[in-house]
């Protein structure tokens, strides 16, 4: 397959997952940063990841959840491409979400921080987020909520006891993950601080995934 044919093939595939005005740039970057992109079924634990295939001379592989809405998909993909760029520049010599990665993420996202790509409400929250991007978009509750707003299936309020272990939810504007039943209470972890708390099973929470 020629480079042009591959570009068109990637473009046809990615049009389903990305905001229209971001597709060409992403297709260019697949060549420029030279990685394999795998679009996978939903993994609850994370939206995407970056690794290298040691058996293939450290060829970079990026995996993204296909159930993400197009804005979350783009942000997650650019987050992972920033890992790829950082890996090519520094190999494993720097922190995975350290300053080198942050700079690359900011640089790459700059391309998309406009109203051709993002709706204005999301753009506003995203610009704030990009000033000092966290290791995960889900650690920024404002961004997380703004992104969820564009999901086709809206969030719903449920009792914590109705969720499964591993599910994430919003309580008091913060994101938690349900861990396990401890006697009559439910142990949950606050995503941002990784601190654990015990909740009443009948507390009402907003289920996010
Ligand atoms: Zn990361």
Structure annotation, total helices: 6
Q: Structural class, from helix and strand content?
A: alpha+beta
Domain count: the total is: 2
Cofactors, ions and other ligands in the entry: zinc ion
Number of strands: 9
C-alpha termini separation: 39 Å
Q: Using the CA coordinates, give the radius of gyration.
A: 18 Å
Description:
With 209 residues, the protein is of the alpha+beta class. The chain folds into two domains: 146 residues; 52 residues, SH3 type barrels. The chain is built from six helices and nine strands. Strands 4-9-5-6-7-8 form a six-stranded antiparallel β-sheet, with no helix packed on it. A three-stranded mixed β-sheet has the order 1-3-2, covered by helices on one side. A hairpin with a 5-residue loop joins strand 2 and strand 3. The longest helix has 21 residues. The structure holds zinc ion. Zinc ion (ZN) binds next to helix 3.
